[in-house]
Amino acid sequence: MNIPLISFLACLVVALPSESAQKVKWCVKSQHELKKCQYLATKSPELECHLKSSVTECMISIKTGEADAITVDGEHVYQAGLINYDLRPIIAEDCKAVCSYAVALVKRDTDFSINDLKGKTSCHSCYQSPGGWDIPIGRLVKEHKIPWDGIDDMPLEKAVSQFFSSSCIPGISKAVYANLCQGCQGDCSCSDSEKYSGDGGAFQCLKSGHGQVAFMCHDGVPSSERQNYQLLCMDGSRKSVEEYKDCYFLKEPCHAVISRKDADSEQIYKVLQQIPASDLFSSAAFGGKDLMFSDPPTELTELPKSMDSFLYLREDYYEAMRALRDGNPKDPPQDGKIQWCIISHAEQQKCDSLQIPRMECRRTSSVEECIQKIMRKEADALTVDGGQVYIAGKCGLVPVMVEQSDQQSCPDGGEASSYYVVAVVRKASGVTWNTLKGKKSCHTGLNRNAGWKVPDSAICGKTPGCTLYNFFSKGCAPGADPKSNMCELCKGSGKAVGDESKCKASSEEKYYGYDGAFRCLAEKTGEVAFIKHTIVGDYTDGKGPEWAKDLKSEDYELICPESPDTTVKHTEFVRCNLAKVPAHAVITREDARKDVVKVLKEAQANSDKLFKSEGERNLLFSDSTKCLQEITQPLKEFLTQEYIDMIEKTYTTGQGKPDLVKACTIKMCFG
């Protein structure tokens, strides 16, 4: 009798923490929000309410785990992404219908431009509001129109008070900055006690002559009076109010829910989805406005896991918020230096040993993180395969140099470098293209060209529901979900237990890259390897590293759809391959193109070590590279439409778009 009771109690003990762990702790910052949150918790019992005094206090409590989430505006999305909080947006309000443009409004009969604002009088909807302060002041500081070198120089408010002769900025300290309240008609507060508060107030301030320019949202201008006013554009021109989409500072981003990077965003989204929209986006019953979420009826969109504050806000808004906090961005020194992005200790060692003038080495954990750092100007370049060139292109980066493996085509001319993707098996293993299903597979990496994109297209391209995950029994595809079958065969760094390198998309994982995938096959961990056509010849018959010293090229063969029931020699890759694809290329930002190309051209002219790797293979560049050639055609021409079509087709039949592509292309309030 005791055994069932003990078992029941044991199950109960296990169940309780699990139930508790599912709670979503929402941070609220007022009694009104607390009241609404407690009501919403009756609709979704997994919601728990935690009261703090401010957004900043909420962000601190989320970082420490005391709370899980809060909805914030664009400025606070930026703040949350800073290193002292390290939070990210996980869910966004869908605000397409109410997308606001921050504008500078002036009377039509004036003749000054955005470059002539110094000494003018100004009207602002409200201090620290998006349209009245954050966006216009941040952008004017970023563009060096309002001089301010940061808080160590003086408070931003003082810099603004020295820039405008007088203003009405409701909500600012009247006692400290008297001239910033001089144009107001009330108590200079963001309330009904100030006649010129809000967008409507800023417009009336301009109309009545208490200011010469009004900073506000475009939809605050009465339609009946728009013909009497114009907008100041950032390029120095002026346009009609109706042309606000072509003449504005920035768009106000949709509000977003922020949380820790390791938070269970799916659970948070699920809890919110349980609440009726009529309750979630309504605040009147609780004595306030925009409590927890915006009041206009809207929807919530779950964001990709790669989403961070920079990707969410986009570069212009992000940089304006940086300027609002840190001052005028310093112009980069004109020394032509570049930062090369590396993803492993071995790459770090090679990068440091090259001692290339004007090139520094910047370490990250993955190619995807490198792409994000290049976008944020925290790094400048790295070499990636065609599939990753495509991803980088979706994030606004460009290919500028390509690896050339044919010496006769160096330095210029000849056919653009490319390679064949092949499926390699051990001789006499019995594995053919027709018997491939259910076998164990070795891949260079998730979303890599030879290792993933091409075999995914060749195997699953015409089969709905097919993915490499369900086609193979297990495999090693570094970068895949560690819990998936595509990480089961990975080896990591070789440690027995607690190996954080297992299935990591860097050379810390022994089965990563071309050499790693071939090693996975050679060590009989997997039964097929998807690699570049030159790898078998490069790693056998005494030409490979220590682990490959006893391998014989004759022991490996190719399989392909053209020979579904047989195998062919590894040298017959021209007639038995999965695809011919673009060679690896160097990616960077357009504004860094000139410096990256110059540094690399000088490096390959002055060093014979650029394309050689010690200890490991293919560090920084493929070892088979003879030279780097500059790419002058657009990304679409470099990859070719046929190759792009192949990549995009795998997105529809496989696991869908890579997370970073989703993060870079998601349409919020920016289109």
What does this structure look like?
The protein is an alpha+beta fold and 671 residues long. It folds into four domains: 23-97 and 253-326, D-Maltodextrin-Binding Protein, domain 2 (3-Layer(aba) Sandwich); 100-251, Periplasmic binding protein-like II (D-Maltodextrin-Binding Protein, domain 2), CATH 3.40.190.10; 338-411 and 583-639, D-Maltodextrin-Binding Protein, domain 2 (3-Layer(aba) Sandwich); 418-581, 3-Layer(aba) Sandwich (D-Maltodextrin-Binding Protein, domain 2), CATH 3.40.190. 31% of the residues lie in helices and 18% in strands. It is built from 22 helices and 26 strands. The strands form six sheets. Strands 5, 6, 7, 8, 9, 10 and 11 form a seven-stranded mixed β-sheet that branches. Strands 18, 19, 20, 21, 22, 23 and 24 form a seven-stranded mixed β-sheet that branches. A four-stranded antiparallel β-sheet has the order 3-12-4-13, with helices on both faces. α4 (74-80) crosses α11 (315-326), α5 crosses α11 (315-326) and α15 (449-460) crosses α21 (641-653). The longest helix is centred in the N-terminal third of the chain and has 20 residues, at 2-21. The protein is elongated. One of its GO terms (biological process) is antibacterial humoral response. Transferrins are iron binding transport proteins which bind Fe(3+) ion in association with the binding of an anion, usually bicarbonate. Residues 24-326, 338-652 form the Transferrin-like domain. Its main location: secreted. Keywords: Disulfide bond, Ion transport, Iron, Iron transport, Metal-binding, Repeat, Secreted, Signal, Transport.
